């Protein structure tokens, strides 16, 4: 798996004259987006976790790009005017920790090139194309096995042509080290060494054989001068068309989950088959658990334990694993998912009480606190965000109260995590469940339990009530082997990895702001249409909205559902016995403009009543 990329952006770009006097040429816009930013987006969408950018001329421009895209690391080549591209690459080399993609900053290209290199079986490979007639081609000569032996801008120097250098390669860390060593050995005779010359040298010497992967009709252009820029602008619509043909049909899921996902999350599942017992897949799962933990606490404070299953599986893990026979559990039941916790507790015959409350009115916090103290409860379980209605419970306040009174807290955060900012230490949450298919915006199939370390350590002697879903056994086995005890949902985990990358890029705070903007558009339409929301506005999560069914005898949810579905929107009915409602969720990879479009559909249907 390729997890890093290096973009070389140190050059002066002097052949573009006034266009690059005060800015790097990577910031030349095509299609209103700087070409280097287009490349950054494509790399993250291809599953790259970290991008190192080697800067030089006007390097401060890249600081704003790095601020916009977490995951970018900047390294400045202070001697950029005196060195070639290999000098910039050498500055980046100490930060490279594995196989990586290497790109030039002045490229426009079809993202399929990244996919081809990522899926290559050769460890070292550079991308080549057929003729571009650009006037500044770098020609490649192969040996009989298709490996690089020479490059030249003079076609006459290349007796056998493999293609033209694109400027996108895949290299091993060891190969990069050999290229840096070659540069250091030739500082006197080749002070402005280009990286492709170093590649040819180490490949020809067979210290690292670099395979040439040719795509004859690959869509790309490098921009070194005004002529190249004109060619790139002419080619750009074809690149856009090629990439758009790989986009999937857009369906906006306004149901409470699974949520709408990005194409890059969907495509993350399309990968080479792998046995999940391989070390490489262990690396993937370990990265996932580490990154998920960092979303809810400080480094080293939280452990995340993965299971194959839905969010309900994670709930069952917690209740069956975290309450001892000597414990006494209070479950806050104010909706379908609180009732589900009580059902699970009854199946395991736990010593528990369920405190029932309204499914759509705010909890009486003082009544809950009094109940917790009156019967010597050792554990308390609560749903953070009641997916039935969109009611947000005061979990931090209640969990801090529990902490002050020695009560272990168990939280269902299935539809709260990755939308609402949560710090388990700050909020005094001991165990917390969530899933891959809601606000984290992955695919269904992965459940996980977050555990504060000291709380997790405390359960190791508790009775084994469940074999597959036992929290301590799963945790211990993973810590020893970096594997789950049973076959994990491989493709869903790859999708979850990509979803985590995209969550880090957006940030949880900005994601909640986007969700809130969608909610505001919905609420505006609800009020305009004279509809009524079930939960008081101040108590809503801004993630899911329960709307009371219109009183008209002509209304039928099935008709509204079908009307919305025909326009690409999926909605879901309510679940409460005490009120007839339908629910609109605004979680997942949806934008405020899409919610505004749905409200038009809703208004059109309402007029028929």
Model description:
- The chain has 609 residues and is of the alpha/beta class.
- The protein has three domains: 4-244, Spore Coat Polysaccharide Biosynthesis Protein SpsA, Chain A (Alpha-Beta Complex); 263-506, Type I PLP-dependent aspartate aminotransferase-like (Major domain) (Aspartate Aminotransferase, domain 2), CATH 3.40.640.10; 508-607, Aspartate Aminotransferase, domain 1, CATH 3.90.1150.
- 37% of the residues lie in helices and 20% in strands.
- The chain contains 20 helices and 27 strands.
- The strands form seven sheets. Strands 1, 4, 5, 6, 8, 9, 10, 11 and 12 form a nine-stranded mixed β-sheet that branches.
- A hairpin with a 5-residue loop joins β9 and β10.
- α3 (85-92) crosses α5 (173-185) and α18 runs parallel beside α20 (592-607).
- The radius of gyration is 28 Å and the shape is globular.
- The mean pLDDT is 96.
Write the layout of secondary structure elements.
Elements: E1 4-9, E2 29-30, E3 33-34, H1 35-45, E4 50-55, H2 61-68, E5 72-76, H3 85-92, E6 100-104, E7 107-109, H4 112-118, E8 125-129, E9 139-142, E10 148-152, E11 163-171, H5 173-185, H6 195-204, E12 211-215, E13 220-222, H7 226-244, E14 252-253, H8 263-267, H9 279-294, E15 302-308, H10 311-322, E16 329-333, H11 336-347, E17 352-356, H12 365-374, E18 379-383, E19 385-386, E20 391-392, H13 395-404, E21 408-412, H14 424-427, E22 431-435, E23 446-452, H15 453-457, H16 471-481, H17 490-506, H18 508-529, E24 544-548, H19 557-566, E25 569-570, E26 572-573, E27 581-585, H20 592-607
Parallel strand pairs: 1-4, 1-6, 4-5, 8-12, 14-25, 16-17, 16-18, 18-21, 21-22
Antiparallel strand pairs: 2-3, 6-11, 7-13, 8-11, 9-10, 9-11, 15-23, 19-20, 22-23, 24-27, 26-27
Helix pairs in contact: 3-5, 5-6, 9-17, 10-11, 18-20
């Amino acid at each position: 798996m390729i997890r890093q990329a290096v973009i070389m952006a140190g050059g002066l770009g002097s052949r573009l004259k006034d266009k690059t006097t005060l800015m790097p040429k990577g910031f030349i816009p095509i299609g209103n987006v700087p070409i280097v930013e287009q490349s950054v987006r494509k790399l993250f969408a291809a599953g790259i976790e970290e991008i190192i950018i080697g800067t030089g001329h006007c390097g401060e421009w890249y600081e704003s790009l790095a601020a916009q895209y977490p995951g970018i690391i900047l390294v400045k080549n202070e001697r950029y005017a005196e060195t070639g591209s290999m000098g910039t690459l050498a500055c980046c080399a100490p930060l490279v920790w594995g196989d990586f993609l290497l790109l030039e900053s002045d490229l426009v290209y079809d993202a399929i090139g990244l996919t081809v290199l990522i899926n290559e079986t050769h460890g070292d490979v550079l991308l080549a194309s057929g003729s571009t007639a650009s006037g500044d081609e770098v020609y490649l000569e192969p040996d009989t096995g298709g490996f690089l032996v020479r490059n030249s801008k003079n076609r006459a120097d290349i007796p056998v042509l493999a293609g033209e250098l694109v400027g996108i390669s895949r290299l091993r860390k060891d190969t990069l080290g050999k290229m840096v060593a070659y540069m250091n050995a030739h500082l006197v005779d080749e002070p402005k060494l280009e990286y492709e010359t170093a590649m040819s040298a180490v490949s020809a010497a067979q210290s690292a054989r670099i395979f040439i992967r040719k795509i004859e009709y690959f869509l790309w252009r490098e921009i070194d001068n005004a002529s190249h820029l004109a060619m790139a602008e002419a080619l750009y619509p074809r690149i856009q068309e090629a990439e758009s043909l790989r986009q999937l049909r857009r369906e906006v899921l306004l149901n409470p989950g699974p949520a709408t996902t990005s194409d890059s999350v969907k495509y993350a599942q399309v990968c080479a088959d792998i046995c999940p017992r391989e070390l490489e897949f262990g690396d993937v799962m370990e990265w996932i658990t580490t990154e998920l933990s960092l979303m809810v606490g400080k480094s080293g404070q939280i452990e995340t334990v993965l299971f194959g299953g839905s969010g309900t599986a994670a709930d069952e893990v917690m209740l069956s694993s975290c309450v001892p026979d000597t414990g006494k559990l209070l479950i806050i039941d104010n909706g379908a998912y609180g009732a589900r916790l009580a059902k699970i507790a009854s199946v395991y015959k736990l010593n528990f009480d369920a405190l029932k409350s309204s499914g759509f009115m705010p909890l009486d916090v003082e009544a809950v606190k009094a109940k917790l103290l009156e019967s010597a409860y050792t554990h308390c379980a609560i749903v953070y965000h009641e997916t039935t209605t969109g009611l947000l419970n005061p979990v931090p306040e209640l969990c801090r109260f529990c902490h002050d009174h020695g009560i272990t807290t168990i939280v269902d955060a299935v539809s709260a995590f990755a939308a609402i900012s949560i710090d388990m230490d700050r909020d005094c949450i001991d165990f917390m469940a969530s899933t891959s298919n809601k606000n984290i915006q992955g695919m269904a199939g992965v459940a996980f339990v977050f555990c504060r370390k000291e709380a997790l350590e405390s359960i190791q002697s508790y009775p084994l009530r469940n074999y597959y879903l036992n929290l301590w056994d799963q945790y211990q086995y993973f810590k020893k082997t970096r594997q789950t005890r049973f076959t994990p949902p491989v493709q869903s985990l790859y999708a979850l990895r990509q979803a985590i990358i995209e969550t880090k890029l957006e940030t949880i705070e900005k994601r909640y702001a986007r969700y809130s903007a969608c909610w505001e558009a919905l609420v505006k339409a609800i009020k305009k249409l004279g509809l009524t929301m079930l939960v008081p506005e101040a108590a809503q999560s801004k993630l899911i909205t329960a709307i009371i069914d219109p009183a008209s005898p002509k209304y039928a949810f099935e008709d509204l559902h079908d009307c919305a579905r025909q326009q690409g929107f999926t909605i879901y009915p309510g679940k409460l016995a005490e009120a007839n409602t339908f629910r609109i969720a605004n979680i997942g990879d949806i934008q405020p403009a899409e919610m505004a479009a749905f409200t038009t559909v809703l208004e059109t249907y309402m007029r028929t009543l």
